[in-house]
Amino acid sequence: MDFEKIIAETGVKVVTGDLPRGWWGAYDWRDHRIVLRPRLGVVQYDSTLAHELGHAWHMHRGTTPRQEREASVWAARRLIRASDFIDALRVSEHRTGIAQILGVMPSDVDTYISTLTPNEILFVSNLLRKEEVC
């Protein structure tokens, strides 16, 4: 995911700073600013930044469960490419293994899977089944 390009397109400012306990990041629509907790690991940082960029992209005001889902879906679909997901499935059937292969959080994998259409699920299933036969 090209964070710099999306940051430039949205015009959002990204800074590090103090956040409430347990928060890794936050989007403040009033300042059009993303605040990230200092010292996050690379995967935590990328996942959190992508999620908060989803809020900025959709110009969310405040937070609702629907907006949180929308930001998570936006992030997962940009962090995980379909071809990389299929390649990871060839190696691991478990979300933690897939996440490790893809360099994302397991929650990103869960969100990505939840967005697959019935046709995409069928395609992936058929592809993996075809490879088992070979």
If you had to describe this structure to a student in words, what would you say it looks like?
This is ImmA/IrrE family metallo-endopeptidase. It comes from Arthrobacter burdickii. InterPro entries: IrrE_HExxH (IPR010359). Residues 28-95 form the IrrE N-terminal-like domain. A three-stranded mixed beta sheet has the order 1-3-2, with helices on one face. Helices cover 63% and strands 9% of the residues. It has one domain: Zincin-like (2-Layer Sandwich). Strand 2 (25-28) and strand 3 (33-36) form a beta hairpin. It is elongated and about 50 Å long. It is mainly alpha-helical. It contains seven helices and three strands. It has helices spanning 3-10, 42-58, 65-79, 82-91, 95-102, 106-115, 118-133, and strands spanning 13-16, 25-28, 33-36.
Question: Strands, helices and their partners?
Answer:
Layout: H1 3-10, E1 13-16, E2 25-28, E3 33-36, H2 42-58, H3 65-79, H4 82-91, H5 95-102, H6 106-115, H7 118-133
Parallel strand pairs: 1-3
Antiparallel strand pairs: 2-3
Helix pairs in contact: 1-2, 2-3, 3-6, 4-5, 5-6
Oligomerization status of the protein chains? single chain
Overall structural domain count = 1
Provide the CATH architecture. 2-Layer Sandwich
In the sheet with the most strands, the strands line up as 1-3-2
- The CATH topology is what? Zincin-like
Q: What is the percentage of strand-forming residues? A: 5-15%
Shape category: elongated
The main sheet comes to:
3 strands, mixed
State the helix count: 7
The total strand number stands at 3
Q: Which CATH class? A: Alpha Beta
Helix content bin: 55-70%
Q: Please provide the ordered H/E string of secondary-structure elements.
A: HEEEHHHHHH
Whole-number radius of gyration? 16 Å
On the 0 to 100 scale, the average pLDDT is 93
Give the distance, in angstroms, between the N- and C-terminal Cα atoms: 33 Å
Class computed from helices, strands and strand pairing: mainly alpha
Uncertain ranges: none
Protein name: ImmA/IrrE family metallo-endopeptidase
Organism: Arthrobacter burdickii
InterPro entries: IrrE_HExxH (IPR010359)
Pfam family, one: Peptidase_M78
